[in-house]
Design goal:
This protein has about 900 residues and is α+β, with helices and mostly antiparallel strands. Strands 6-5-9-3-2-12-15-14 form an 8-stranded mixed β-sheet, with no helix packed on it. It has a 5-stranded mixed β-sheet with strand order 17-18-19-21-20, covered by helices on one side. A 4-stranded mixed β-sheet has the order 29-26-25-31, with no helix packed on it. It binds arginine and zinc ion. Arginine binds near residues 119, 120, 258 and 260. The site of arginine (ARG) has 14 residues, from strand 20 and helix 2.
Length: about 900
């Protein structure tokens, strides 16, 4: 059932042009397609091969002649026409049922509108087609529909004609001037309104920008529009890449499986990544919109102009585009700290989610060798680890070197469907560097460990750092070869200053205090001379490679780095190491029933960060945030979620007990009265203020409770309201206090009943509260506002609970797993992609104690045995069970 990268065969036929006519009707849509095709003489495939799924085939004509049933075969999704001539005009008519399509892949209905999602293999649910990314063609699309129900008709490219059909129906004809693979096809039809603007490119050319939303949401499109304009300018400035169309559209839909989709000229977005105003969206939402709008826009070059040869190369476009959107967000803030804050946030996700994926049954290389269902491979490994791999080129080649590589990549491959190896070749050839070994980042799964040993010879003033790399086995890969790992580093003297670095083999860098060591062997020793005193090493600065650094620091070393490291990332890292060490010790103490204690050194370290006015408040917020329960879990071979939760809560409460006055002062200092603005400086203030509030409620009294209640009642923006409500939903107080807090939750619902995205937050908040158990979740599922068919809603409550409330989900009685199995099975019938995501909540079942393992295995077994299991879910649970 799996397909393999090594089995790639070029398509037997190319498609030059695609003409499509849609008669749009929610129940039955008629699709007529005309393809001009020609034989690919270089292919071993001699048949004309098409893919189709859930289609009613009405007509099939080749070169004007109806094809008899005997002239072709259909096996599952594959149609083969043997003995076709070298030049073919294929005419296909199909009928599809958009309202019945709950998978949200292909053409489907959302609130009475038509939406498409064709990546990865959704186009085959619209018509028979060589639905693979290396078949690129020019599309012309005619849309016809009822004028009242579907006043707006959109497709890729330029509108070339529109008009009335006389019978209450109208039409619009769209032409996309660029060749594209079928996964970039899109159409949208329905009742929509738009914010639009003429925008002047740096070349002087004017383009039309539009953000389309459902009626009533035009007060929420400004930020998406601003983000789009920023994206267009950034790609011109940083990469010299211009928008190639006269018109660029964004459409928001509330029914969407993922974040958004980069369809050529017609990006379709989850409303979550478009709609924002101060009343309904938080600072985090604003940042998410900026980065996703950027991401999809940047795909126009990295993904659309240069696309993937096959889906094994998915990271070619996704890793690169994530890197680009990360850089975009960092450049927009611009400051050194701003960049560091963004970097830390990205690395947090990588470590918490991707490292965990790399250590579990679904571990796969950045360029996988096989898969059963491609939709299961839109993963943090393809995206976030893929972005780290691109970032390593950037680190190795430097800013200008990387740009040269990008330029060569486009010069060579514009208009082509290529492989990850082609990108690496462009980087190597443009810089003259040997990047042969670097290929292992694409082929080998797993997170490498880099162990550090140091030696100092005071008399000779020689300091040596020995780095040893290793990588654990992953499914299908028992042995790993050494990776090419860039290790950015510095050495701190006792005053906290960076020392000049004189490292053997790095002559050119003599005197610089920042160096990128290149670790390529299993073990390598780097020798530094003129080291006048014993330094504290600062390694993997700015997280220069996606590895786990095993280094034994003393508390004093960490305090030194925390106070002085010139690299902000490693400053943050030192604090996290200090915290993590204590959280692990305390978790063990909880398990042993020992007395819990927090040392003065740690409390004072946190106090001095909190009060350090020289540090940007957003940076302080990150530093003062303890490692998440999921991060702490990674430190254990057997995970005890309840003990981890107890230990972490103990540290939060103890810190608050000691730092109450400091926290109160900070809270007051960073109040942001006045009009809401999502700029970096105001966001930073809000984040530190709200962190202070969340700590204050860990050691609550009536006065701090009042602070939270007042903030909830009086704040005029969602960031502050939600922060207050979150604190109010999670604190440990008296019965009377809890009652007051519960009122806030009710009020919030009433106030925002009409705002789906806010109601998602309302469910999420409860799903992740420590007081929420399986019974509460079941009650919430009965709430009239809950539905499993909307992915955002399902994710907020169900994924919130299964993925972000570990101490409750992993209840000792196994009730969480039973609920999980029921929901995976229910979702499987509705939407296999969403079901398969949920199925992954039990990936790491081997990491839990025996009694939990048994119950998880039973739940996995129950899902595996369910009737009509989709490929999507079957792949995930069978891999989990094979672990
Ligand atoms: N290419 C899109 C993005 O990263 C993601 C679409 C994935 N959709 C899917 N059904 N697998 O922006
Ligand atoms: Zn993408």
């Amino acid at each position: 059932q799996a397909i393999y990268r090594k089995d790639y065969v070029a398509p037997g036929y190319w498609v030059d042009t695609v003409e499509m006519g849609f008669d749009l009707d929610l129940d039955h849509t008629h699709v007529a397609t005309r393809l001009t095709m020609r034989r690919n003489y270089d292919s071993a495939e001699k048949d004309l091969v098409l893919f189709g799924a859930s289609l009613k085939l009405l007509q099939l004509r080749m070169n004007g002649v109806n094809l008899k049933k005997s002239a072709y075969t259909i096996d599952g999704e594959i149609m083969r026409i043997p003995n076709a001539p070298d030049q073919v005009v294929l005419e296909i008519e199909t009928r599809i049922q958009p309202v019945k399509n709950t998978s949200l892949s292909g053409l489907y209905a959302s609130n009475g509108n038509f939406i498409t999602q064709c990546e990865a293999e959704g186009f085959r649910k619209i018509t028979w087609f060589p639905d693979r990314p290396d078949v690129m063609a020019k599309y012309t699309v005619m849309l016809r529909a009822d004028k009242k129900k579907f006043p707006v008709l959109l497709a890729n490219g330029n509108l070339i004609e529109e008009g009335d059909l006389g019978d209450g129906r109208h039409f619009a004809k769209w032409e996309d001037p660029f060749k594209k693979p079928s996964y970039l096809f899109a159409l949208v039809a329905g009742k929509l309104v738009c914010q639009e603007e003429k925008y002047r490119l740096q070349s002087g050319r004017k383009v039309l920008l539009q953000v389309w939303v459902e009626d009533g949401n035009l007060d929420k499109t400004q930020h998406a529009m601003d983000s789009l304009k920023n994206s267009i300018r950034w790609d011109e400035d940083r990469f010299g890449l211009e928008l190639d169309l006269d018109r660029f559209m964004i459409v928001a839909t509330s029914d969407f499986n993922m974040g958004a989709m980069e369809n050529k000229g017609l990006n379709i977005f989850n409303t979550k990544y478009v709609l924002a105003n101060p009343r309904i969206a938080t600072d985090v939402d604003y940042a998410g919109i900026e980065s996703v709008v950027g991401h999809e826009y940047f795909h126009n070059w990295t993904g659309n102009r240069v696309t993937c040869r096959d889906w094994f190369q998915l990271s070619l476009k996704e890793g690169l585009t994530v890197f680009r959107d990360q850089e975009f967000s960092a450049d927009l803030v611009g400051t050194v700290t701003g960049r560091a804050v963004k970097r830390i946030e990205d690395v947090r996700v990588l470590r918490q989610v991707q490292f965990s994926e790399d250590a579990g049954p679904m571990a796969h290389p950045v360029r996988p060798d096989s898969f059963v269902e491609i939709n299961n491979f839109y993963t943090v490994t393809i995206y976030e680890k893929g972005a780290e791999v691109v970032r390593m080129y950037y680190t190795l080649l430097g800013h200008d070197g990387f740009r040269k590589g990008m330029d060569l990549y486009f010069a060579r491959h514009d208009g082509q469907a290529v492989e990850c190896d082609d990108f690496r070749a462009a980087m190597a050839d443009s810089s003259g560097r040997d990047l042969t070994q670097f290929e292992r980042w694409y082929s080998q799964a797993g997170t490498p460990h880099v162990k550090v040993q140091t030696a100092y010879d005071a008399a000779a003033q020689i300091y040596e750092i020995t780095l040893t790399q290793s990588c654990a086995a992953t499914p299908g890969q028992a042995e790993k070869l050494p990776f090419h790992i860039p290790v950015a580093m510095g050495l701190l003297d006792s005053a906290g200053h960076d020392m000049p670095l004189y490292c053997d083999g790095y002559e050119n860098q003599a005197g610089a205090s920042n160096l990128v060591l290149e670790l390529t062997d299993a073990t390598q020793t780097f020798r530094f001379s003129q080291v006048g005193s014993l330094p504290v090493p600062s390694l993997l600065r700015n997280f220069s490679a996606p590895v786990i650094l095993d280094i034994e620091y003393s508390d004093d070393d960490l305090s030194h780095l925390l106070a002085h490291d010139s690299d902000p990332f490693n400053r943050w890292e030192a604090g996290q190491r200090l915290a993590s060490r204590r959280l692990v010790r305390l978790t063990k103490a909880v398990q042993q029933g020992e007395k819990l204690e927090l040392d003065q050194l740690f409390i004072e370290a946190w106090r001095s960060i909190l009060n350090d006015e020289s540090l940007d408040p957003s940076f302080r917020e990150l530093m003062l945030t303890l490692p998440s329960e999921a991060m702490i879990a990674e430190e254990f071979s057997v995970v005890d979620p309840q003990a981890i939760h107890t230990a972490r809560q103990f540290v939060r409460a103890t810190l608050t007990q000691h730092l109450r006055a400091d926290l109160l002062r900070t809270y007051e200092t960073y109040l942001t009265p006045g009009k809401y603005s999502p700029d970096a400086a105001s966001m930073a203030k809000r984040s530190l203020k709200n962190l202070s509030l969340s700590y204050l409620l860990e050691w609550v009294d009536d006065s701090t409770l009042a602070l939270a209640l007042t903030q909830f009642d009086e704040a005029e923006n969602m960031t502050d309201r939600l922060a207050a409500l979150t604190a109010l939903t999670n604190f440990n107080g008296s019965g009377k206090q809890i009652k007051q807090a519960a009122k806030a939750l009710k009020k919030f619902y009433k106030e925002f009943k009409q705002e789906a995205l806010v109601i998602d937050k309302w469910f999420m908040l409860q799903a992740t509260a420590h007081t929420t158990d399986v019974k509460t979740i079941c009650e919430l599922m009965e709430h009239p506002a809950f539905t499993l068919t909307n992915p955002n809603r399902a994710r907020s409550l169900i994924f919130g609970f299964c993925n972000a409330n570990p101490s409750r989900f992993h209840a000792a009685d196994g009730s969480g797993y039973i609920l999980w199995a029921e929901l995976v099975i229910a979702l499987n019938k509705i939407n296999p992609q969403v079901a398969a995501r949920l199925a992954r909540s039990l990936d790491r079942w081997k990491k839990y104690p025996e009694h939990l393992q048994k119950k998880m295995k039973a739940a996995l077994g129950k899902v595996a045995a369910a009737k009509n299991l989709s490929k999507d879910v079957a792949e995930v649970v069978s891999k989990a069970l094979a672990a």
